[in-house]
Amino acid sequence: MAEAVSTGQLSVSSLRQQAHRRIRTSLVTGRISPGQIYSAQVVAAELGVSVTPVREAMLELVNEGLLTPVRNRGYRVVELTPQDMAEVYELRELLEVAALTKLAADPPVAQREHFLGLVREMQRCADVGDVASFLEAERSFHLGLIELAGNRRLLNNVAKLRDQTRLFGIAPLAREGGLREAADQHGELLDAVLAGDALRTGQLMRDHYTRAVSPGQPVDEKATTG
């Protein structure tokens, strides 16, 4: 095994869920990297738990499209081609823009402080370079908003798609200082949703996907204002 999956042992409660969260975080931050094979036994030893909850967690990640089994050896990170990435981003845009513009029509004002807290946490993590915690806060932010839109199946599918695309690009973004800008953009998005501005919400989400598909390129303002 090339790298440690995590630091610190897990507590005895909800071992499968905790193992799933730890392994997924290592996947999306690149600590578990493509090209390597990871066995459930080795990962379990590093997390300080038995093999069974880790194997179950890794099988869940297979079902989510993040890992693929290697017969009699373990699991490998699924590698997406540029075409795969484009297709996933297209699906995410279709689903997430629709969900958040729907939510903006009935703003979740009662949850304002909760989501503001997640934005502040993203900003804090960006400032100190804590990529793993940034991703957890960002995931909670987006999926929390989508959950309020009231479609459980949409939520489950968006969660899988978001994790697949987060396997790529986060390390360069962090190195280039882009995490703080990304955190601030989430604040703008939250303001639009809470203001009930569905048009602005959709524009900001499409802006997000333009940047995601073409990192480092200027956003076409016409595409986000018309």
What can you tell me about this protein's structure?
This protein is mostly helical. It folds into two domains: 63 residues, Arc Repressor Mutant, subunit A; 144 residues, Up-down Bundle (Four Helix Bundle (Hemerythrin (Met), subunit A)). It is built from eleven helices and three strands, in the order αβααββαααααααα. The chain has a three-stranded antiparallel sheet. A hairpin with a 3-residue loop joins strand 2 and strand 3. The longest helix has 23 residues. The protein is globular and about 55 Å long. The termini are far apart.
The first-level CATH class of the largest domain is given as Mainly Alpha
Per DSSP E runs of 2 or more residues, the count of β-strands stands at: 3
Strand ordering within the main sheet? 1-3-2
The string of secondary-structure elements, in order, is HEHHEEHHHHHHHH
State the assembly state of the protein chains: single chain
Number of helices: 11
Mean of residue pLDDT values: 83
Structural class comes to: mainly alpha
- Radius of gyration computed on alpha carbons: 18 Å
Proportion of strand residues: under 5%
Helical content stands at 55-70%
Overall shape = globular
* CATH-level-2 architecture of the largest domain: Up-down Bundle
Main beta sheet, described?
3 strands, antiparallel
Q: In angstroms, what separates the terminal alpha carbons?
A: 50 Å
Which fold name is given in CATH as the topology of the largest domain?
Four Helix Bundle (Hemerythrin (Met), subunit A)
Unreliable segments (pLDDT under 50, ≥5 consecutive)? 215-226
How many domains make up the coordinates?
Answer: 2
CATH homologous superfamily of the largest domain, by name? GntR ligand-binding domain-like
